[in-house]
Amino acid sequence: MTRPRVASRLAGAGFLPDLRTRATEGELLDAELPATEVRKSLADLRFVNRWLSGRGGLQRAVTPHLPEHGRLLDVGCASGDVAAHLSARLARKVFTVGVDLKPLHLREAPPVVRRVAADASRLPFRDGSFDVVTASLFLHHFDEAELGRLLGELARVARRAVVVSDLERALVPFVFARAVFPFVFETGVSVHDGLVSIRRGFREPELRAAFVAAGLGGVSIRRQFPYRLLAVAALS
After folding, report:
1. Beta carbons of 193 and 174 less than 8 angstroms apart
2. What pTM, to 2 d.p., does this model score?
């Protein structure tokens, strides 16, 4: 019996989720939580970003499109650690801005990141305000019907490129997360959201379709360790 058939049988028996399509369940951190739980969950997210987010691949994808004294926008930045990492590692002077919907998330951001609380679907910036716009582990929070408009808004404020890094939906990371997350995360919110995030992740054709819906048909998508999809839409 092939692996897909085995996975399908196990999912049907209730042992594993059905990963053939994206989950629609929401994440707890997107709702209203006590501030103490939010801070713990953000700390867990920083842990994931440090060890499992593929920040090196994101940095390499951004570098060719970001000039000296360039402007970088990270959308859905949470507590800004990925934006700060990029700003520190790009070996050039960069004006870095992080956007998140929730001010509490932004309070945890390091000083190198200029913080703006805003809705990602209605960014408060003029067209072409930034050389590169990034979104790391952010797109999976949205349903298919929202993705084209969201990516279109990211492209609107970008001059040179939109760079997206997100989860590839697969069995291996889900099984790993279910076994490991309860022992390494500070809060059950992160365990729940981590598993939901994987189930809301993308397969390559799904992510490509979202870029096409945004009018960004020339996107380049490649896989990177561990189970990430890195998409680059060059605009100039």
Report:
1. no
2. 0.91
